[in-house]
Amino acid sequence: EPEVTQTPSHQVTQMGQEVILRCVPISNHLYFYWYRQILGQKVEFLVSFYNNEISEKSEIFDDQFSVERPDGSNFTLKIRSTKLEDSAMYFCASNSRTGPNTEAFFGQGTRLTVV
Amino acid sequence: AQTVTQSQPEMSVQEAETVTLSCTYDTSENNYYLFWYKQPPSRQMILVIRQEAYKQQNATENRFSVNFQKAAKSFSLKISDSQLGDTAMYFCAFMVNTDKLIFGTGTRLQVFP
User: Fold this and answer.
1) How far apart are CA A26 and CA A75, in angstroms?
2) pLDDT, tens digit, 9 for 90 and up, residues B66-107
3) What are the chain A neighbours of B47 within 8 Å (beta carbons)?
4) What are phi and psi of B99, to 5 degrees?
5) Which of A29, A92, A97, B6 is the most exposed place for a label (fewest CB within 10 A)?
6) What percent of chain A has pLDDT over 70?
7) Interchain contact, B45 vs A109, CB within 8 Å
8) Contact criterion met (CB < 8 Å) for B42 and A100
């Protein structure tokens, strides 16, 4: 069964460092998303991406964040200068279409720890 | 604004019994999708069940079923014959087309032997 793959599963970084979280969405999907879940809290939307551009972003997704799909398969989330409060689980998701069978498939998540 | 509310932070149920998790939502849209996701301790997000708003029939997936009341904007999840492996955090979520998912705050379900 096709799945969304995220790497690494766990990333520890020092405050102020740049991190790149990687995702390989399901191959025929067109819509891509990043979500964040701070420990013990709900899952929050960060950004959606379609046709090689951001279609929507939340207020969490400030100038420290960026996304790109550099090679048509990987979908990356970059945090330019990490802060302690960026520590969270980051989920990538992809979706194929509107209408029937619309469903967001999630990766297993990347646990980011900023120290 | 679109919101999802889960009013039960924690629930518990004995193995083999039935439990119902509540969810309400608010939207002005007419066509949308509703989901229940399970998040076990591994923190992976696992889709449990989905419901299209245009369908009147309640969705079922094995031991999981929903009670979808569109007029009341209510979408509860019923778990029958609860199993120890059902212990997890359960999130209700709402989506319009391929827009973002909006999640509730979750209900922590504990299944006791």
Assistant:
1) 11
2) 999 999 999 999 999 999 999 999 999 998 866 789 999 999
3) 103, 105-106
4) -70, 180
5) A97
6) 95
7) yes
8) no
